[in-house]
Design brief:
The protein is built from 13 helices and 13 strands. It is globular, with a radius of gyration of 22 Å. The protein starts with a strand and ends in a 5-residue tail after the last helix. It binds flavin-adenine dinucleotide.
C-alpha cells in the first residue's frame, strides 16, 4: 500500500511472489497432467478419475488448497488458478473444480459447525477421494430459480426433512458423495421460501437420472439427480431451523429476506467462471499465434498478412480486458466492495463471450486444420460455449448489469 497524501493506493496489476509460484505450479500440472489426456477424455466422455487423483496427491484437489486460495487478500489467486486449469483443459478443470460449487453453497448458507463438518467431505483425501455437487436447476427452473418444484417438508416427529423432486444439468450429479440441494420449503414465497440442504453420502432416496452427452467440457460429469422420499436429519438444513423460521416469517410479512446477500454471493463467484473462460481463450490464442508464425502461404508466414495479425492483436486485447474485469471483480468480492454496476456479472459475461470469439477466430487462423481433431482448437471452441450458459446465461448477466446501473427492476 502506498501513501499518497490523503488517500491510499492498494491496487496493482502484477502478481506477487506467492501468486506467481502458485500460478507456475498449477500451470505445470495443467501442461503435464491435463493437456496430454484432454483429447482422450473429450472422446470417451468419462470422468477423469486418474487426473483428479493426481491433483489430490499433490494437494491441488483438497479443501486446504481451496482455503489457502480463498485466503489470498487480493482475491486474485482463485482466478489465477482457474485460468491455468482451464488453459490445461476445461472439462478436466471442471471435474477438479466441480466440488467447489457444493463448497460455495455450504459456506454461503451454513453455520461454522456445518462448514467444518460437510466441506471436508466434498474432497475426502487422496486415498479416499470424494466429490461434491450443487443441485439447483430443474427441468422447469433454470434461469428462473424462483420457481423450483423440489419440495422439502419437515417431519417434526423424526426431526427430518423429506425431499422430493428432480434436478437437472447437475455437475457431478449422482456421482458426488455429498449433494447440496436447494429446495422449496414454502412455495408461495418463491425464492424467499427456499432453503439449502446437505444430502450426505449414503442417504437413501437420492439417485442419478440420465447422464447428459455434451457439446463440450465432456470430461465433466453432468446428470439429473432424482430425490424420492429422501430423508435427511434436521442438522442437514444449512443455517439451521431457527434462522430459516425467522427468514420465512420476515418474507411472509414482506420484509427484506437477505436477498441482497444472495446476490452479492453470486457476484463474487462469477469472476471465477470468467477466469475459466479466459483460460480457454488464452490457450486458443497462444496456439493460433504459434501456428500463424509457422504456417506459410504465398511464400510468407500467414501472420505477415494484416488480416491475420490484426485478428491476433484483437484476440489478445480482449483476453487482457476480460482478465482485468475478472481480477477487478475478484478483488471487489474479496474486499467486500459493493458491486454497484454488476461488476461480477460483467466479468463473467465478457470473459465467456470473449472465449467464444477467440476460439472461433483461432479456428479461422488455422483454416482447415482448425476444423479437424488433429489440433485442439475445435475442442476449445466447443468447450467455450458452456460459459455463456451455466452459472447464469449471458442474457441474465446483461439483466443483472442493466438492473444495477439503472436501479430499476428491468425485465
Ligand atoms: C454442462 C452444464 C453444467 C451445469 N451445472 C450445474 C450445476 O452444477 N448445478 C446447477 O444447479 N445447475 C447447473 N447447470 C444448469 C445451468 O445453470 C442452467 O442451464 C442455466 O442456468 C440456464 O437455465 P436453462 O438451461 O433452464 O435455460 P433457460 O432458463 O430455459 O433459458 C433459455 C434461454 O432463455 C433466456 N432467458 C431466460 N430467462 C430470460 C430473461 N428473463 N430475459 C432474457 N432471456 C432469458 C436464457 O438466457 C437462455 O438464452 C449446468 C448446465 C450445464 C449445461
Amino acid at each position: 500500500m502506498v501513501e499518497t497524501g490523503g488517500f491510499h493506493v492498494d491496487i496493482g496489476f502484477e502478481l506477487n511472489e506467492e501468486q506467481l509460484q502458485v500460478q507456475k505450479w498449477v500451470h505445470d500440472f495443467a501442461e503435464k497432467s491435463m493437456r496430454p489426456v484432454a483429447a482422450e477424455y473429450d472422446e470417451t466422455e468419462e470422468f477423469p478419475w486418474p487426473v483428479v487423483e493426481e491433483a489430490a496427491d499433490i494437494g491441488l484437489y483438497s479443501f486446504d488448497f481451496l482455503a489457502n486460495t480463498w485466503a489470498d487478500e487480493t482475491g486474485v489467486m482463485l482466478p489465477v488458478v482457474m485460468e491455468e486449469l482451464c488453459w490445461g483443459d476445461a472439462g478436466i478443470a471442471l471435474a477438479i473444480m466441480g466440488s467447489t460449487l457444493a463448497v460455495a453453497g455450504i459456506v454461503a448458507n451454513g453455520t461454522s459447525e456445518q462448514v467444518g463438518e460437510w466441506v471436508p467431505q466434498c474432497y475426502g483425501d487422496p486415498k479416499n477421494l470424494k466429490l461434491g455437487a450443487f443441485a439447483v436447476s430443474e427441468p422447469d427452473a433454470g434461469s428462473d430459480v424462483g420457481s423450483l418444484r423440489t419440495r422439502a417438508v419437515y417431519d417434526e416427529a423424526t426431526d427430518e426433512w423429506v425431499i422430493n423432486g428432480t434436478k437437472t444439468w447437475i455437475t457431478n450429479g449422482g456421482i458426488a458423495n455429498t449433494h447440496v440441494v436447494v429446495a422449496s420449503v414454502e412455495p408461495e414465497l418463491g425464492s424467499r421460501g427456499q432453503a439449502s440442504f446437505v444430502v450426505p453420502e449414503g442417504t437413501p432416496g437420492i439417485s442419478q437420472g440420465a447422464k447428459f452427452h455434451k457439446l463440450g467440457i465432456r470430461a465433466s460429469h453432468t446428470a439429473e439427480v432424482i430425490l424420492s422420499e429422501c430423508r435427511v436429519p434436521g442438522r442437514c438444513l444449512l443455517g439451521g431451523k431457527d434462522k430459516l423460521d425467522e427468514r420465512l416469517a420476515r418474507a411472509r410479512e414482506g420484509k427484506s429476506s437477505g436477498r441482497q446477500a444472495a446476490l452479492a454471493t453470486f457476484e463474487s463467484t462469477r469472476p471465477g467462471v470468467g477466469a475459466q473462460a479466459v483460460g480457454i481463450a488464452r490457450a486458443a490464442y497462444e496456439y493460433a499465434l504459434d501456428y500463424a508464425k509457422q504456417r506459410k502461404q504465398f511464400g510468407r508466414a500467414i501472420i505477415e498478412n494484416q488480416a491475420i495479425s490484426f485478428k491476433l492483436a484483437e484476440m489478445r486485447m480482449n483476453i487482457d480486458a476480460a482478465r482485468l474485469l475478472v481480477w477487478r471483480a475478484a478483488w471487489m468480492g474479496r474486499n467486500k466492495k459493493t458491486f454497484e454496476a454488476g461488476e461480477g456479472s460483467m466479468s463473467k459475461l465478457f470473459g465467456s463471450e470473449t472465449a467464444i470469439r477467440v476460439t472461433e477466430q483461432a479456428i479461422q487462423i488455422l483454416g482447415g486444420a482448425g476444423f479437424v481433431k488433429d489440433h485442439p482448437v475445435e475442442r476449445w471452441y466447443r468447450d467455450s460455449k458452456i460459459f455463456t450458459i451455466f452459472e447464469g446465461t449471458s442474457e441474465i448477466q446483461h439483466l443483472v448489469v442493466a438492473r444495477a446501473i439503472s436501479g430499476m427492476r428491468l425485465q
